[in-house]
Structure formats: C-alpha cells, structure tokens
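Dear colleague,

As promised, here are the two records you asked about, laid out in our usual form so they can be pasted straight into your sheet.

NAME FIELD: protein one
SEQUENCE, THEN STRUCTURE:
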Amino acid sequence: MSDIIDLGGAPANEDCAQLGHSPDFERLNRLEVAVYRAAIIARFGPPPEGCALVSITNRHDFGIYRTLGLRVDGIVARRELAAAYIAAVEDGLGSWIEAGFVPPVRYDDGSVPVIERDHIDDIVTGALIATRPAASGRFAIPDFEILHRNLAAAYPRSAEAARALLQEIST
C-alpha cells in the first residue's frame, strides 16, 4: 500500500497556471510540475528507495490539473532515510530561487504568460549554470554546491549541456 503526499503544482509563494483562467493551461501546468520536480530534487536530492516523485492528476469542475506528489510505499515510510526525506519535502518549497531556478513561466501583469524555456532539460541546464562553481571551484553561495550536485546527478544530459555552454563561453 502506498501513500501520496501532495506537494502542489509549484512553490507555495509563486504564481502558477490557473485552471479555467490561464491560456494553454495544460501545457503550462505540465511544465511547472516538471520543473517543480527538478527543484525538489535540487534542494533535497532524489527520493530514496521506496519513494518516488510523481505527477498527480486532479479532477475539478473546470477540468484536470496536475500537482507534484511524493509516493511512499507504506513499509518504507518507517525507515529512517525515507522518514527524513518525507519530513524534508512534505512542505515543498516556498519559491523557485530556493532551488536555484527562475520561474519557468512569468505572469507579469495578468496578460499572456511568458515561457522563456519550454523544455525541462534547458531549464535544468540554466539552473546548473546559475549554481556553478567559480574557476577556483568555490561556490558563490554554500547552498549552490548542494543544488548543483543534486541536479548534475539527476540530470546528466543537462549537466553535460551546461559544461559545454560554459566551455564555449570561456574560449
């Protein structure tokens, strides 16, 4: 038996797509949930064995929306590593910046939402570049080391793209 903890569709204090209001809601909602998953991994690392970050489909009078959930196998929840992860992620994030991300969608003035990058690999590459160490190997902010390490491990394709872009810029 599994339990699912609903983490929401985006960090708690951030604007996000609104069902029945935002144009192209389904696309925006899926993108925000995918980026929120990456942000949770950046901040807290990948889920331990027996836990998984999943997309939850929610039905509403206005249609379907998705949120990010942490699925936990019942027996695993009692293990120390899983319990610590659950405690760390259950409140989610307050903002994108806590994980080194910029908002994937901008809702500037209530007009048409603006998407700077629309693919998760590109968005994670941007976060890896933002949190990268200096040439000395030191990180500008100590938390950047955690964010960068977690993202690079979970998204190796984005890590390689970030390295290639940074090498191109430095030559």
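NAME FIELD: protein two
SEQUENCE, THEN STRUCTURE:
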Amino acid sequence: MSARRGLAARLAERAAGGAVRVFLVVTALFWLLPTVGLLVSSLLSARDLNGGGWWQVFEAPSRLTTENYAELLSDGTITGSLLSTAAITVPATLSVLLLGAFAGYAFAWLEFPGRDALFLLVVALLVVPVQVALIPVSELFGAVGLFETTAGVVLFHTAFGLPFAVFLLRNFFAEIPRELLEAARLDGAGELRLFARVVLPLGAPALASLGIFQFLWVWNDMLVALVFADSTNPPVTVALQQQVRQFGNNVDVLAPGAFLSMVVPLLVFFAFQRQFASGVMAGAVK
C-alpha cells in the first residue's frame, strides 16, 4: 500500500510541476502580448494602423515596414530626447551606486557616534513621497540656477534613490563574515582598499540589483522630468507626451518612440539578469 501511495505521490508531483510550468508559460505570454503588439504597431504604417489592429499582420505580414523608425530617427527632437534621457539616467544610476555603497559600508562596519540613529533617519526617508519635495526643491533649484538643467534632474534622482540604496546595501554588507574583513586588515589592507578589493566584489549581486532598479526608475520617469528637465531638450518620456499633445493620435510616431524607450531598459535588465537573480536570492536567504 505504501508503494502505491509513493507512486501516486510521484505522479501527483509530476502533474503539479507540469501544470505550474504551463501556467507560467501562459502568464509569460500574456505579459509579453502588449510588448509584441507595440512592436508590431511600430512596424505598420499609419494607414494600416488606422485600418485595423496590429493583429492584421498575421493576415498580411508584408505590411511590416521600418519606415516609421527611419523617420523617427531622422527627427532631431526624438534622438535628442534619447540622448538627454541617457545623460540623466547614467549619472543618476552611477552616483547612487557609488554613494550608496560607501554609506552602506560605513553603516555596516564603521563605528562612529550616532550611527544607528542616523541609519534610522535614512530608513525613515524611504516613506517620503517624491511629490512632497517638488515645490521646495523647485524653489531651491531656481535660487541656485539648477532649474531646467540636467544636473538638477540628476541630483533629484540621486537624492531620492539614496535612502533605498543605503538600506539595501547596508543590510547586504552586514552579512559579510567579520573574519574575512579582519583577515584583510591583518594583511595590511586599509578601509578604502578593503572596501574596493573585498566588499565591492562580494556585493556585486546587490549592486547589480540596485543598479537595475535605479536605471528603470530614472529612465521611465516622467513626473520629475516634466518639472525639472530642460523643456527645449526633454527626456524621451516628456518628448513622447508632447507628441501626443501636439499631433493627437499619431500612433506611427508614438509606437516606435515608445518601443525604443522600452528596449533600452529591457537590454539593461537582460544584460544583468544573472546578477539580479543572485542578489534577490541572496537577500531572500539572508
């Protein structure tokens, strides 16, 4: 009887595993459906888009064309907005990674007066919404000449990205074995060398996860860009919004522009997905 129950249990486990895989595949397909629809729409002419949905491509694949992308990339406004977005996103991501790593290491392994109280203050800043700071920061940036500048947008994103970065990296660095750090100190390593040669390599998964989150948040941001960015050369999210306001239902411009703005974060995610998964699993285990 126990052998039969064991066989039945194994069959049930296999069936459950197959059902879970089918469910995950179906969920992934539904999740990818809007992306596929946007890609196909970006490859259809305005006349074909107005004549039906993107699924018409299954009946007439010959309607696909790259003319929309050729016209879009020849538009200086869109290409300039993509460069403006990169000029904001890359410094805002790198600065958060660098400053967050230094602060996280200090909170985890350095002794100084008020360390715990200061860390609690940093954690409390996580609940401050971006909308609360828009007006006072606008007045501050206007007074110091940073309003409608790339540097102002980078500083704003850096300031609001640091609390989460410090919280995440501090908790990750605190799990590094103390014996490993003490051994490096006995070998003559100073704090800066210890940080660069030991802590940063061990924290690579957490840094990759943080970098992906920060990159996606800044690249896809629209609220901060609307308020602080240069209106003559806005980021791509604002540029696409302006296209809607000026030309209305111009899907032949919006679809390729939206897909291009979405491709870059996807490429960044897939490039660092292994480190991202390692960081998530490490955080789950710890």
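A couple of things worth noting about protein two: Residues 81 and 233 are 6 Å apart (CA to CA). The mean pLDDT is 82.

Best,
R.
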